[in-house]
Amino acid sequence: MFDNSRIRTVPGWENAPVPLCFGGDPRALTFCCDPRYPLAYEQKCTRKKVLEDIGLSEEEYLDIKRRFTEEMGWDSEDVCFNSLAFCCLRRNGCPRRDEVVKDICGSLKDYFTMKRILAIELLKAAKNRDDVEPYIKYEEKMLKE
Questions:
Q1: How confident is the model at residue 5 (pLDDT cuts 50, 70, 90)?
Q2: Do strands 7-10 and 13-17 pair parallel, antiparallel, or not at all (unpaired)?
Q3: Euclidean distance between CA atoms 3 and 82, whole angstroms
Q4: Which positions ≥6 away from 77 have C-beta within 8 Å?
């Protein structure tokens, strides 16, 4: 199911997808930016296409990330787009991410575990469920282990 060149193992998430701008699968929506702002990797960004492919609107995507931010207390003026929900996978993508993660989540393991849960929530909201169901089943199974 996974292209080994398109996954990373990070604390709390084995086989995490690389960001979409680097060829990640739909689970990588969890690492995508806020679509209302210009992007550093705009020429490589496939977020809009992936959202269309899985049947999730940008507004639904934003609503899920905003709700998750509220539930987790992930808001911070010290990270891009003022929320850990919009932080990317890249360690140096946001200069203060790890500091904010430590303050809010406690550890990178806890943070990436929650990003995994956010990925599942995004995929569960997709209307083209057949396209994302294998990823949902895999991630839910892995969370239980």
A1: confident
A2: antiparallel
A3: 32
A4: none
Token reading at 59? 């507004």
Condensed to tens digits (0 to 9), the pLDDT of residues 47-65 reads 999 999 999 999 999 999 9
pLDDT tens per residue, range 65-119: 999 999 999 999 999 899 999 998 877 677 789 999 999 999 999 999 999 999 9
Rounded distance between C-alpha atoms, residue 127 and residue 54, angstroms? 6
Quickly list DSSP for 21-78: GGT--GGGGGG---TTS--TTGGG--HHHHHHHHT--HHHHHHHHHHHHHHHT-B-TT
How many domains in the chain?
Answer: 1
Nearest in space to 122 (alpha carbons), one of 51, 70, 69, 71: 51
What are the C-alpha distances in Å from 50 to residues 15, 83, 128? 19, 22, 11
Q: What pLDDT does residue 51 have?
A: 96
> Cα–Cα–Cα angle for 24, 8, 106, nearest 5°?
110
Question: Where in the sequence is the domain holding 110, given as residue range(s)?
Answer: 4-144
Report the distance separating Cα 11 and Cα 143, nearest Å. Answer: 13
Q: Is the pTM of this model over 0.90?
A: yes
